[in-house]
Amino acid sequence: DIQEVQGIHWVDGIVIGVYFVFVFAVGIYCGFSKYFKRWYHKYIRRRLSSGNQESPDAEEEQNSNSSSFFLAGKDVSWWAVGCSLFASNIGSEHFIGLASSGAQDGICTSFGEWTSIFAIMLLAWLFVPYYLRSAVYTLPEFIEKRFSKSCRMYLTVISLVMYVLTKISVALFAGSIVFKVLLGWNIWVSATVLVVATGLYTVSGGLSAVIYTEVAQTFILIVGGITVFIICMVDVGGYSNLSKNLPDNMSHLWQPLNHPNFPWTGVVFGMPFVSIWYWCTDQVIVQRILSAKNLPSATRGCLLAGFMKILPPFMMVVPGMVSRSLYASVRKDPNTAFIVLVQNRLPIGARGIMMAAMLAALMSSLASVFHSSSTLFTMDIYREFKKRRQERSREETTSSIQEVDEQEILVHDESNEKEYVLVGRIAGVVVTIVGIAWIPLVQLLSQQLYIYTHKVMSYTAPPIAIVFLLGILWRRSNSYGAFTTMVVGFIFGMTRLILEAIITSNPNIYTKSPSFIHAILTVYIKSNFLNFCACFSLLSAIVMIVVSLATKAPSQDQTQWALTLSHLKDMFEGKDRSEPEQPEQPDIMSVESGSTQVEDVRPQRMSFLRNSVAHLVNVGLTLVLLGGVVALYIGFA
């Protein structure tokens, strides 16, 4: 019998307390150190003798600048990018959901994690160069440059809706399960505490606070997860002995066509599009890449996250399988698999480390969504609304007054940086409130958190993934095809989601329907969600290709080298994001000696050498990562 733990031991409480102190210290330092820098630079400027002079480091007044708040000043190292990507992806829904699915379906649940590694490599080598060169804040802004403003606005709204459906409400619900079992808190108290704690360092410090706090949390995640895995393997005597105590199909990665959740057809043809949307086109993830200092750092950060993605099945899926083999109650309620394991198998102290890891995962995911939601709303909706209003006011003025107004508007835009940051913070709060209100509906739609999130993504992600893929790979794709694909795809996918929820709550609608409607519902509603995703992706690609070919070709500005795969060599030149706006100039130092001009090409050669070495290292890491994933597929087949 499982013994319920009432409260937590004082040692575990100290461990969790130390964790919170450390996390908040990192977040507060990243946030408020910029205020000190801003005050310092203002003080230096006042001390300068000439009123026209400025401090040489004046541009480092960061926290009132939207580039700093939303993209961390575009100066984040590759290791911070990689750790932040991993920590943003792994939330409490992964601990609860992956362990639950592992207890119910077995090792095949790992497909969701290991398939995403291919999407991460695609992000590193295909999407990242174009995201950085286009110099955008958000992915909807990239879509506007490639297609149109209507596509941008539509994608922004859909992204905010998907954050509520798949991220905020699910993460809060999973965290509430943890607090309810361990501390006895109800769902609303748990959600409120988590939101307030996460928002303190997120809102105060911007993306720098989020990213560098996630670096610290990544260490806790890995240590806690590996601790659970080691203890589990010792308890059951290794993976081979574990397989003997479970149904045979649970120890195999590849499953037959009739598997309810992970058939091999859905995993091969459907899941990659979900992974592409999540890793290559989702603002929460890509915002970390946009904050990288240069292309090699962004690429290497992606690859580091890819290596880390090998770990979750061992930290969560396998422990879920162990929990099923040890506890009869887990076979009745798989959602308790991981929590029961933490309660009963971990010693005092280690239990606190694991609870801290789960809190770290939850806060990282919430912090990422808070910040990305505020970025999307501010940069893609609020700022565009202000621009339109200013353009309308300029059109109403006379030509003489218009020149004066343009200068005033320019100054006004610069002063509005603080306003953008404030609006972004308010938007994050509003989206969070909506996410909390959605929590009860998560319970109604599905009791399996991991399956729930993948279902919602399978019904909404394929059109967006297809638009981004064809937008970069196919120059002929245009705004008409992109907008039609997203609108038709959203209607098609949400119809399935709504009908599935209705039929699940009232099965008589399906069983008592006429034979013709029953056949349609069987194919449209009752088919596996990953198989549906594969067909949905194909349909989206057909719609975009047909509509694009039937309408006029995109303009030259929409197919420039920074937005489409115009020239393959562009991917390997390692240019900075500012280069598309500047004429190409050799990095040459000239020294005149008499009438002869001597050119020093050493800086240019060194820059080329550094870029070449960085790309070679990244290629080598990619090959190692690819070989590791293939070995996992073969080893657990």
Automatic annotation (TrEMBL):
So where does this one cross the membrane? Answer: 14-36, 76-99, 111-132, 153-179, 185-212, 219-242, 262-280, 301-322, 353-379, 422-444, 456-474, 481-503, 529-550, 613-636
Q: Which family does the UniProt entry place this protein in? A: Belongs to the sodium:solute symporter (SSF) (TC 2.A.21) family.
Ranges for the region named Disordered are: 574-594
Q: InterPro entries recorded for this chain?
A: Na/Glc_symporter_sf, Na/solute_symporter, Na/solute_symporter_CS
Q: Per its UniProt record, what PROSITE patterns does this chain match? A: NA_SOLUT_SYMP_1 (PS00456), NA_SOLUT_SYMP_3 (PS50283)
Q: Offer a single GO CC term for the protein.
A: plasma membrane
Gene3D superfamilies membership: Sodium/glucose cotransporter
Subcellular localization: Membrane
- One GO MF term: D-glucose:sodium symporter activity
Say where the protein is mainly found. membrane
Membrane topology term reads:
Multi-pass membrane protein
Recorded hits in Pfam families, A to Z, give: SSF
Q: Which organism is it from?
A: Acrasis kona
Tell me the protein's name. SLC5A
List keywords of the entry alphabetically.
Membrane, Transmembrane, Transmembrane helix
